[in-house]
Amino acid sequence: MRTDYISWDEYFMGIALLSAMRSKDENTQVGACIVDNDNKILSLGYNGMPIGCSDEEMPWKRTGAPLDTKYMFVCHAEFNAILNSGKNLKGSRIYVTLFPCNECAKAIIQSGISEIVYMSDKYTGTDSDTAARKMFDMVGIKYRKYEMTGNNITINL
Questions:
Q1: Who's near 60: CB < 8 A, 6+ residues apart?
Q2: What percent of the chain has pLDDT over 90?
Q3: Is 45 buried (19+), middle (13-18) or exposed (0-12) by CB count in 10 A?
Q4: Do 23 and 71 form a contact (C-beta atoms < 8 A)?
Q5: Is 57 a catalytic residue?
Q6: Contact indicator for 52, 72 with CB cutoff of 8 Å
Q7: How far apart are CA 39 and CA 134, in angstroms?
Q8: What is the largest CA-CA distance in the chain?
Q9: Looking at 78, 103, 115, 147, which residue is catalytic?
């Protein structure tokens, strides 16, 4: 029997990372993968513009007047995964490449997701991060940082 297979955490975080590669954002690519307690994938998402909004016509800049930046328009990976699911997410787990912002935290709570596994928390200590963690703690949603294994996975397309 093989012993060098990847763990569930590696598998689902790998899928979240692969999903992030669909993002058209030049600066930030985030992916999310929602799974149930039986390790079945319920949904995927990445950060991008709403369906029907042309990626070429929408702004992707990070600075400038609010309507000239991506922030008023882009849908985050977690939000997209929740909306894409069409399923009951109660008790599920979300793997996400970046710790959720306060807005995604609200959607995660409302959807019934019970655990978050995240890769990066580069915004730790910001107001958005503090608010998200406060809400997660208040409602008992578990969150944990993904433990890097050092394994490399190569996919040649």
A1: 24, 25, 26, 27, 70
A2: 89
A3: buried
A4: no
A5: no
A6: no
A7: 27
A8: 58
A9: 78
